[in-house]
Amino acid sequence: MRGGFVLAVLTVLCHGHVLRQDEIELEWWESTIFYQIYPRSFADSDGDGIGDLKGITSKLEYIKEIGAGAVWLSPIFQSPMYDFGYDISDFYAIHDEFGTMEDFEELLTKADSLDIKIVLDLVPNHTSNESIWFQEALKGNEKYYNYFVWEDGIIDENGEMQPPNNWLSHFRGSAWEYKEEVGKYYLHQFVVGQPDLNYRNPDVVEEMNNVIRFWLDKGVAGFRVDAVNCLFEVDKDMFGGKYPDEPFSGRTDVDPESHDYLSHIYTKDQNETYYMVYQWRNVFDEIAAKDGLPRVMMTEVYASIQDVVKYFGEGDQIGAQVPFNFDLITDVDASSSAADMKRAIDKFLTYKPLEKKPNWVVGNHDQSRMATRYGSSLVDGINMIVLLLPGVGVTYMGEEIGLVDGYVSWEDTVDPSGCNTNDPINYVTSSRDPERTPFQWNAEKNAGFSTADKTWLPVAEGYETLNVEVQKAAERSNLKVYQALADLRQDSVFRYGRYDSLAINHDVFAFRRWYKADTYIVLVNMRDMSHEVDLTYFENVTGDVSVVIRSVHSPKSEGDVFDASTVPVAPYEGIVLKLL
After folding, report:
1. For residue 200, with 0-12 CB atoms within 10 Å meaning exposed, 13-18 middle and 19 or more buried, which class applies?
2. How many Cβ atoms are within 10 Å of 544's Cβ, its own excluded?
């Protein structure tokens, strides 16, 4: 329904029953903001044009200032960097471009002094073809040969060797690569340099358990588990000992080399995957029981909502606390209506187990930046949604200042997803480089990111005016709105309160949070049109409301009072109101 019709209200209890503040003590991860850092692009301490651990350590006070309590780092393990750290050659070592183990331990120590938790990226699906495991496999070491997924090729009618089946890589082309040393093909669901690990081998399972223990024992507060739904392939014994072809997806807008050309029913979302996650959760809890620090597991999967929520756990099996909810990335953007926004939010709340915490994500290192997808005018409104909805808030570095995608030319493109298109014109639709351009600290050389003459990716244009220093100095800025939201988020209403939402009309999305005697209402106008809205459609909302926080370009001031039945809303305005 559109226009002036009010959509149905969804009421959600944060924990299955109405809570009093003294009934429950939240775990650290339930009320914090997770701030994702892409280490290559955050801060360069040694002038080589690449961000590093010492750079991150030097900026931890900034993380504290904006109100985030946990930092999630994209991969920092030893890697040849074909896929910029997602091809790990040694799971027990720090990549030398980022620093040393001592640098990492200094980061942990300083973070702890600021009460900031450190969460690492774990990439368990595959390793690097330069890892000792894979090199030993090529030498005929049976133990390590069995760490990987191997298959015989097929001889075609011309007598030529072909891959075992039609499986495709996420980075285009066959997911199989032939190795002369062993006379077989190995599976790589991602780049050629990322051979898949074989989780049907108990040795691989125990190896990854030991990797997890190693870092958690150092004091790491948890892991974000990458591409988790690719861990298992179908059991080929069910198909006569040969991996079957995957069916055509039905998409006619992609070519046969594209990963989207097939429906991945045999290489993704296998049932064994969930039980592997549940087993890892046991390892997390094992370490937490030793040192008293509850560990958090975050899982990354782009899948149906029915599959995503399985990562929470099933029956008596406990899984991840934070299966990432990407609905605010995949389901809505600048073209969306208030009803679309409500639907996207309601979806995760509806499908997740009642007692589990929701989470809200609007960007990461693989997706166009939030300010680019939604438009810079909506930065404050979207941050209001992410930080004031019930549950866990996740911020990708730069969302607090409205950082936009940078332009990266074909010549400067380094992301294999873009490079593998071999298309100097359309590579931008595949490349992830634009959302990975260096962080913008100030108006100095390279936006204060690095003193190098050339940075690993070019700094985005416009950094002279779009940066942290400018926004700190400004009377009003996205950064200051973000900090105010982070502060308000600690209020009992947002920690324990209940929630409902309305699409008041086509453009204005509203949600209410209430607890005991306090009620807040958040309004976000998705369009460049003014409206006057009636908030008494919400149950028990009458009388006056007062402005607590407003977006940068809002014509209102903090403390302004309006009758709840006639609240004016400016184009693209975001407002947090308190019921008086």
Report:
1. middle
2. 14
Within 13 Å of residue 43, how many CA atoms lie on the same side as its CB?
18
Q: What is the DSSP string of 421-473?
A: T--TTTGGGT--GGGGSPP---SSGGGGS--SSS-SSPPPTTTTTSSHHHHHH
Q: Tokens at residue 494, please?
A: 């947002």
In a domain, 519, yes or no: no
| Whole-number Cα distances in Å, 88 to 108, 130, 132, 335 | 21, 8, 11, 38
3-state secondary structure of 248: strand
Q: Which two tokens stand for residue 509?
A: 């999305």
Helix (H) or strand (E) holding 202: helix 202-217
> 3-state DSSP helix/strand/coil percent for the chain, to nearest 5?
30, 20, 50
pLDDT above 70: residue 15: no
Q: 44, 65, 187: which is closest to 116 by C-alpha?
A: 65
In a domain, 105, yes or no: no
Identify whether the C-beta of residue 501 lies closer than 8 Å to the C-beta of residue 512. yes
Residue where one domain finishes, among candidates 449, 471, 493? 471
- Tens digit of pLDDT for each residue in 95-131? 999 999 999 999 999 999 999 999 999 999 999 999 9
Residue 319 in any domain: the answer is no
CB of 575 within 8 A of CB of 532? Answer: no
Rounded CA-CA distance 394/385 in Å is 11
| Structural tokens at position 78 | 């030893």
Instruction: State the DSSP H helix or E strand holding residue 56, giving kind and residue range, or none if neither.
Output: helix 53-58
* CATH classification of the domain holding 258: 3.90.400.10
| Residue 553 Cα to chain centre, angstroms | 28
Q: Are 325 and 360 in contact (CB under 8 A)?
A: yes
Tell me: pLDDT of 17 over 90. no
Considering its fold, how many domains does the chain have in total?
2
Alpha helix positions (H), 115-198: 132-138, 142-145
Q: Give the whole-angstrom CA distance, residue 215 versus residue 108.
A: 11
Model-level pTM greater than 0.85?
yes
Active site residues per annotation: 226, 300
75 to 33, 89, 90: CA distances (angstroms)? 20, 12, 11
Q: What is the pLDDT of residues 457-492, one digit of tens each?
A: 999 999 999 999 999 999 999 999 999 999 999 999
Residue 177 lies in a domain: yes
**pLDDT category of residue 13 using cuts at 50, 70 and 90:** very low
Strand partners, 498: 514
What is the span of the domain harbouring residue 151?
127-196+234-268
**Quick check: 264 and 229 in contact, CB under 8 A?**
no
